[in-house]
Write a structure and sequence with these properties.
Layout lengths: L3 E2 L10 E7 L6 E2 L2 E9 L2 E5 L2 E5 L4 E4 L5 E5 L5 E8 L4 H4 L2 E3 L10 H14 L4 H19 L2 E3 L5 H16 L5 H8 L3 H12 L3 H19 L5 H7 L5 H12 L32 E5 L11
Helix pairs in contact: 2-3, 7-9
Amino acid sequence: MIAKREIWSYPEEAKVWVGKYRNSHNLLHWHYDCEFVYVERGSVDIFCEKRRHTLAQGEALFTDSGQMHYQRAREADTVLIVIVFDYNIIRPFLDQFQLASPKLYNSYPIPACYERLRSILTQRKRFYGEEATCAVREMMIDVFRGEQLVHRLGSDRTEEAFKRLLEDIGERFAEYTFEEAVHFMGMSDAYFSRYFKAMAGTTFSQYLNYVRTDNAVRLLRSGEDMTMTEIAERCGFATIRNFNRIFREFTGNAPSRLPKDFVLGEQFSYQSEQAFTPTLYDCELIESSDPSALPDATN
């Protein structure tokens, strides 16, 4: 899993985006927006707040601002309704309370809320931004009244440090070591290993090898005049033999036989302040409040 901060782009007058994904499968990521996911069809596993939550048809999950999360559809043709909005829309009550669990345990008219928001955001009538804000607030007030709440805790400094660690690895992956990561987090070796696995869903070694392989794929596809040994060295692999073995593990191909159109299953952005979408290539956006984001928008 490659983890990065995601930055959402909204319409000029609204701080809300809605859409539907088929077979959603994305990366460990975070954003300072709030995200609401509802299973219209199928089922999905969502990792959030260091736990895996399994959602069946008709169930929903709310990701709070700053929470690290990723998801994977459990069966073919799973369809998710996704509503993303600026944290400030519901700041008045989120500053004091938060949901006891990201997964919701009561039913709410989410499909109706989604259709209302999509209509508002696609028609873009006068004052549509304010109208969308009101619709989101109504939905979330309903949810916060229906679910168990707890008083909001202060920021988790360890989790914030972990996010900075991932960005540091993304920038210096070639020379990064386990010892550096342990020192960065100020933990013992054993505790860091457990913490990293709990947060990222993979070991530090697997994560680092994935980042290095991802960058090797990028170099191979760039067309730069480099030997395999040079690519291996630039990406942090100790030997060409080690490079070939790990590369094949993640891609199923030898570096010298990588298809020209190959895309590694999970991608990430280099700069945390640039726009980034964590959605994987087997996932399809099938409906959106931004028609230009759809694959067939020009037809």
